[in-house]
Structures are given as C-alpha cells and as structure tokens.
Design a protein that fits this description.
- With 243 residues, the chain is mostly beta strands.
- Helices cover 6% and strands 54% of the residues.
- It is built from 2 helices and 11 strands.
- The strands form 4 sheets. Strands 4, 5, 6 and 7 form a 4-stranded antiparallel sheet that branches. Strands 3-9-8 form a 3-stranded antiparallel sheet, with no helix packed on it.
- Strand 1 and strand 2 form a beta hairpin.
- The radius of gyration is 33 Å and the shape is rod-shaped.
C-alpha cells in the first residue's frame, strides 16, 4: 500500500512479502537385498527386477554470474525503471567431474517511453551454468541474487548473479531377486566324484564357481585356504562336491 503525508509529500510505499520456503528431507539407510541365489541340489527359478538406488552425498551453494544482452527499441525505452528476472525450470546433466544446467531466464522490463508513458516488455533468454560434482547425478536449483544492468546504444547489458543450490547424489542400478523357487522335482544328477579340479582365472568369483559346480562357496574357500571370495591369481582349485 502507498502512504502519503498530509501535504502530499513524504510518500511511503509499504510492501508485505510472502516467502515460500521449500525443505528437502533425506533419510539414509542401509538395506540388504538379494542379488543372486542357487541351490546345490536343485535348479532354482528366479525373477529379478532392476532397481535404482540414490544416495545423497552433499549440498552446497555456488555463486555464478550470467551475462545477457537485449536489443532495446530506443524510440520506446527512454529510461529503464526496473528489471526483474525469474529462472525457469532447466535441464541438468552430469558427466565426468562437472555438471551443466541449461534453462531459460524470464526477463521483465519496465521502462518510460519518449512520451513519459510506462511500458512493459517480457523476454526469454537461455542460460548455461556449470558446476563441479562429486557424484553421478546432480540437482541444481538457481535463485536470482542480484541484477546489474546498463543501457548502451541499441542494447541492454545485464549481469545476473545467481546462487545455485547444488545437490550431489550417487545413483547405482542393481538387479535384485524379487521371486525365488526351488525346482524340487528336477534334482541335479549326483556327481560320482567327491571333488572337481577347477582351473580358476584371476578375478574369478568363488560364488560363481560354487554355482557352476553345485556346491558350497564356504567349502571351496576352506579346502583351498582362501581368504577372499575373489581369486587373486590364476591357480588350480579343489572343489569339494556337496551331495
């Protein structure tokens, strides 16, 4: 509202502003999921689904400057009175150690023309913001902090100060078991031998070897005195058969 003194002077413009506050709450938990399974005596039927897991890493605020230029009709804009800028929703991409936010700035200009009349105009300009990132997915929310502008000949030069809310996430995709059944009517054929000689390659998983031979990973590790479930070098393994 506008308050005017009794003599018409000392005019005061009183403004009430409402702020919209947005909160983001994250809860980090550890969850055990079943990714693979097998049975030493019977074939197993499994159904799996791919799930996406997003872990929150960090949040920070970065200040960036965005230069803009607008062509101005000098016949209409004799005096720039005010400028406001609102960032529209953008698209964020993360690659390597950097993230890029591409979007549009909605620009409003209030000016006075040659006849002293107030004129308004709106413009949309593309902007690009680049920030560092520590994860493989980033969410970036820009907010306008300050606006500097200068009219020069037939153009309006603007420098927009943005404060960018950067939130880093690590996203992984894992295929998990959603259903599991043992085919008890189709048992594996019983091995006549009690052990199998397996020529393991470096990096091979004891779990995979056990599944191929229908035996126990613990038996393989105990028999070969392994301390890791991943074979560290090429070697011969004695695989006990569990009947």
């Amino acid at each position: 509202r506008c308050l005017v003194g009794p003599d018409g002077e000392n005019t005061v413009l009183e403004i009430t502003a409402k702020l919209l506050l947005q909160f983001q709450v994250h809860r980090c938990e550890e969850m055990a999921v079943l990714k693979d399974a097998f049975h030493s005596g019977y074939p197993v039927s499994m159904q799996t689904e791919e799930h996406e897991w997003k872990a929150f890493l960090a949040q920070r605020f970065e200040e960036v400057k965005v230069p803009l230029q607008l062509s101005i009709p000098s016949a209409r804009w004799q005096e720039i009175l005010d400028i406001w800028i609102f960032p529209m929703a953008g698209r964020c991409e993360c690659g390597g150690d950097g993230a890029t936010l591409k979007g549009h700035l909605q620009i409003g200009v209030i000016a006075r023309d040659a006849d002293g009349e107030i004129v308004c105009s709106e413009h949309s300009e593309e902007y690009v913001v680049r920030c560092t990132c520590s994860g493989n997915r980033v969410e970036m929310q820009p907010t306008v902090a300050d606006i500097l502008y200068r009219a020069a000949e037939e153009r309006l030069e603007i420098e927009v100060g943005l404060v960018v809310d950067v939130m880093d996430y690590k996203v992984t995709k894992t295929r998990i078991v959603t259903d599991l059944s043992v085919c008890e009517d189709k048992p594996y054929s019983i091995q006549k031998s009690s052990v199998i000689v397996h020529y393991a390659m470096a990096g091979e998983s004891v779990w995979e070897i056990a599944r191929q031979c229908h035996t126990s990973p613990a038996c393989i590790m105990e028999e070969n005195e392994l301390i890791s479930e991943i074979v560290d070098e090429r070697r011969v393994l004695i695989v006990p058969i569990v009947h």
